[in-house]
Write a structure and sequence with these properties.
Blueprint: E1 4-14, E2 17-23, E3 28-32, H1 39-51, E4 70-79, E5 82-91, E6 97-100, E7 103-104, E8 117-120, H2 126-129, H3 132-144, H4 148-174, H5 179-219, E9 225-230, H6 238-244, H7 246-252, E10 263-268, E11 271-272, H8 273-276, H9 279-301, E12 306-310, H10 318-329, E13 336-340, H11 343-351, E14 357-361
Parallel strand pairs: 3-13, 3-14, 8-12, 12-13
Antiparallel strand pairs: 1-2, 1-4, 4-5, 5-6, 6-7, 9-10, 10-11
The structure holds adenosine-5'-triphosphate and magnesium ion (MG).
């Protein structure tokens, strides 16, 4: 098992943080301060180094400080016995660059997986509350951190899907139609959908039991939960689906079926958690989901992922906080980053753990 440690983090003009260097503890790091000081921003900058983008928004330009012309995030990691220097930078009006040990990546996707990482944030509630794209993003994020082939396949699928949709719009606009051209895209999508669907099926077969175990240990078996993978391809091939929805697709001018419509069904005591779970149960569900992601990444990547816990102590009852801290106190966890508004509360909880830690006041 490789250890993975972020030793030093340097930020320049990253959102509201103009210039900061953090010499980090190899076990636990806490960022504390009032609302709006930049705690989440610091955690997000670490996410950026691993995933080459923000956890919260897709517009990279938003990461540059309002009054600056560029931003830079630099991290010095140790993975196993190797040092890894990662720099992510962006100049206004230009494309983002990502460097590993001085060498610029041609494709960001080549970087994904080098720094396995899990973020737990209050925004995760979107996974339960909002549309299916959030749940697909979660699925893709977990699988692609350890499966490059899958990552390449979904990028390719998205590209072809985009072209097929553009073609449907073109047909409508020009009042024309050519089934042969459309079929070229249909065949490519169908071909790609098979391995993607199979990878997702396989993934959930392993992932769901791990998730249930995690949930039970935080909630101490108070309720039963389940996740099922819902896909049109569970019942029919994409070729058939596309044929059957051709008329509809021509009218709505987009592709109404395929693996880009997959979803996850989250249940508590056999009912949808969105409607029937309490806030604390929903939060527990999300934390269990992320800890299962942690377990999965750890097994697949053979190194302990970095764990970012944003506002974690909020909204959880004392028992659940205790359980959670006990969990992350076990040897199996790697480096931990925690944010909270309350210095004393955080230090009180963390100092009980038998581990080194550093507190950073922002
Ligand atoms: N591009 C930017 N330039 C300057 N400031 C920015 C930029 N983007 C975000 N901010 C500022 O960053 C601050 C938010 O930081 P962040 O979300 O990290 O706060 P926080 O410490 O996590 O607060 P909370 O306790 O409320 O979660 C806000 O004041 C926001 O205006
Ligand atoms: Mg915050």
């Amino acid at each position: 098992m490789n250890s993975l440690i972020l030793n030093k983090l340097s930020l320049i003009n990253y959102k509201n943080i103009l210039s900061s260097d953090f010499e980090l503890d190899s076990n636990i790091n806490c960022f504390v301060g009032n609302n709006g000081v930049g705690k989440t921003n610091v955690l997000d900058s670490i996410y950026h180094l691993a995933m080459s983008k923000s956890y919260f928004h897709s517009l990279s330009s938003q990461t540059i400080n309002h009054n600056a012309k560029f931003m830079l995030i630099e991290g010095d990691f140790t993975k196993g016995i190797k040092n890894e220097n990662i720099i992510c930078s962006l100049k206004k009006g230009q494309n983002k660059t990502l460097k590993r040990n001085g060498k610029i990546y041609k494709r960001f996707s080549d970087h994904i997986g080098l720094i396995p990482l899990v973020m737990i944030s209050p925004y995760d509630r979107d996974l339960i509350q909002e549309g299916s794209s959030n749940r697909r993003k979660f699925t893709d994020n977990v699988i692609s951190q350890t499966n490059k082939t899958y990552l390449t396949q979904i990028i390719k699928y998205q590209k072809i899907l985009f072209q097929r949709n553009a073609l449907l719009k073109f047909f409508k606009k020009k009042q024309t139609f050519d089934i042969d051209i459309l079929k070229v895209y249909d065949n490519q999508l169908s071909e790609l959908s098979i391995p993607i669907h199979n990878t997702r099926l396989d993934f959930f077969k392993n992932f769901v039991p791990v998730f249930i175990k995690r949930y039970n240990s935080i909630s101490q078996n108070k309720e039963t939960v389940n996740i099922s993978y819902d896909s049109q391809l569970n019942f029919e091939s994409l070729n058939n689906l596309l044929n059957n929805s051709l008329e509809k697709d021509r009218i709505v001018q987009y592709t109404s079926c395929g693996i880009h419509k997959d979803d996850l069904i989250f249940e508590i005591d056999k009912f949808p958690i969105k409607k029937f779970g309490s806030q604390g149960q929903q939060k527990t569900f999300l934390i269990a989901l992320k800890l299962a992601q942690f377990d999965y990444l750890k097994t697949e990547s053979n190194s302990s992922p970095i764990l970012l816990l944003d506002d974690i102590f909020d909204k959880l009852d004392n028992n659940r906080v205790k359980q959670l801290i006990q969990l992350v106190n076990e040897d199996e966890f790697g480096q931990l980053f925690i944010s909270d508004t309350d210095y004393n509360r955080t230090e009180k909880i963390i100092s009980k753990i038998d581990s080194s830690y550093k507190m950073f006041k922002l």
